[in-house]
Design goal:
Layout lengths: L1 E6 L2 E4 L4 E9 L7 E6 L6 E6 L6 E2 L7 E6 L4 E6 L8 E8 L3 E3 L3 E6 L1
Parallel strand pairs: 2-11
Antiparallel strand pairs: 1-3, 3-8, 4-5, 4-9, 5-6, 7-8, 9-10, 9-11
Length: about 110
């Protein structure tokens, strides 16, 4: 089993920044991919960004240039630096990891006020 614990959400004004963190524990390895998804009210969960252990990161088009995903393999932790936040970025952000199946964190709320 893999457990994912997120932190770093909150309320920020438009144009501001937030940094999310997600630590993986349990039977997990640095070779397993991790990432972030988000779900806004009334919408489906969507990809934000993913990062394999040492390969090329992948971003949703609307996040490119504003969000940066990174990971610390020694800590099994993935980060999401979010800059130039917009009200439409308001959502619950979920940490994701894969080890033979999908694992999800409990979600952290990000609210961007206009």
């Amino acid at each position: 089993q893999v457990q994912l614990v997120e932190s770093g959400g909150g309320l920020v004004q438009a144009g501001g920044s937030l940094r999310l963190s997600c630590a993986a524990s349990g039977i997990f390895s640095s070779i397993n991919p991790m990432g972030w998804y988000r779900q806004a009210p009334g919408k489906q969960r969507e990809l934000v960004a993913t990062i394999p252990s040492g390969g090329v990161t992948n971003y949703a088009d609307s996040m490119k240039g504003r969000f940066t995903i990174s990971r610390d393999n020694a800590k099994n932790t993935v980060y999401l630096q979010m800059n130039s936040l917009k009200p439409e970025d308001t959502a619950v952000y979920y940490c994701w990891a894969w080890r033979f199946k999908d694992y999800w964190g409990q979600g952290t709320q990000v609210t961007v006020s206009s």
